[in-house]
Amino acid sequence: MARPSGNRQFPLPPRFRSLPQTVCLTACSLLVSLFPLPTYAHPRSAADVPEPGPYIHFLSTLSIGDSLRFNNPFRLSHQLGPSGESLSRTPLYSNFGLATAFGDPNGWQHGVNLQWNQALSGLPQHVITPAYLLLLDGSRPWLAFSRVGLPIVLNPNPNVGGELSFGAAYLFTASLGLQTELVGNVFYGAATWEKQITAIPMLSLQLGLIIDLEVLP
Asked: Which residue of 49, 84, 125, 194 sits 20 to 30 Å from the alpha carbon of 211, by its own alpha carbon?
């Protein structure tokens, strides 16, 4: 019978067989965390940078206005002088406007404007005015603007005239402010005993609120 050898090896338990691999993985993880490999950023091309969007400027106004009529051939009420060619006042009116402008966020902007006027007393009268808008937005909180439009009288007697206005606004918050506007109009009326075609120039002053919203690029 063979005798057992004196250097006999006993197998390790299963839970100790993976110990060297665990120690090796732990050491590698520690080295990577202490000495991270350098990373190289890939340069971005111009095609990777998105194009900036358009700048859009939205405006809304709500005002009360009063007007002087420089010719009163039809002897309307509120006459201020002795004759029909003298000054007269129109009834107070409300004004609501919407506008959109494009251009330099810190300079000149061009856009479109739509105004709606409604008489607050006397005969019902509604006037809609589509207009071109020129806006200067370079000295915030101040804004300056001008309009050139065609006032369209809807009632009581339909008519179309011409309009030119200059205005300014002061924003006491980022989006809300006060605005005033000086508006000149010319309308052509029906014939009278003295003239075949009557021209009625008017000058109005409006004062109210403005809401200013910008969509930046």
From this structure: 125
User: Is position 7 within any domain?
Assistant: no
pTM: 0.70
Q: What is the mean pLDDT of the chain?
A: 81
Which tens digits make up the pLDDT trace of 115-149? Answer: 999 999 888 899 999 999 999 998 999 999 999 99
Range name among 76-85, 102-111, 164-173, 180-189 with the lowest pLDDT average: 76-85
State how far Cα 143 lies from the chain centre.
12
Alpha carbons 183 and 148: distance in angstroms, whole number: 10
Give yes or no for a contact between 130 and 98, defined as CB atoms under 8 angstroms apart.
no
The range of the structural domain enclosing residue 191 comes to 56-215
Residue 200's CATH number:
2.40.160.20
The token pair that represents 36 in the structure block: 């991270």
